Amino acid sequence: MSAQKSAGIQLLLDAEREATKIVQKAREYRTKRVREARDEAKKEIEAYKAQKEAEFKKFEAEHTQGNQAAQEEANREAEARIREIKEAGNKNREQVIKDLLHAVFTPSPEAMAAH
């Protein structure tokens, strides 16, 4: 009977070793798969980030061009208005100077009474 017990114990020990190997392989596989999943997720994140950056740059370029066009239009309008004001000033300049000089150098009774 002792031989049977010894054979049975040996069989249990062999089964335990085999189970330990299977568990170890399962752990290695799980660790490998977690590492692969992490690397795959990093790649997906980088691709998504690159896509969103490209979309943002496209959006920014489209809207910056629109702003530049609006800015240029505003500058043209401002320059045209400045030219109009200068032309109006130059057109009536002589008369305005004459009127100011006349008002300053011609005494009037109302101005004298105020003092």
Automatic annotation (TrEMBL):
UniProt keyword list: Coiled coil, Hydrogen ion transport, Ion transport, Transport
UniProt GO MF annotations: ATP hydrolysis activity; proton-transporting ATPase activity, rotational mechanism
Signal sequence residues: none
A Pfam family this chain is assigned to: V-ATPase_G
GO CC, alphabetical: vacuolar proton-transporting V-type ATPase, V1 domain
Gene3D superfamilies xref list: 1.20.5.2950
Family membership: Belongs to the V-ATPase G subunit family.
Function: Subunit of the V1 complex of vacuolar(H+)-ATPase (V-ATPase), a multisubunit enzyme composed of a peripheral complex (V1) that hydrolyzes ATP and a membrane integral complex (V0) that translocates protons. V-ATPase is responsible for acidifying and maintaining the pH of intracellular compartments and in some cell types, is targeted to the plasma membrane, where it is responsible for acidifying the extracellular environment.
Protein name: V-type proton ATPase subunit G
Native source organism of the sequence: Neurospora hispaniola
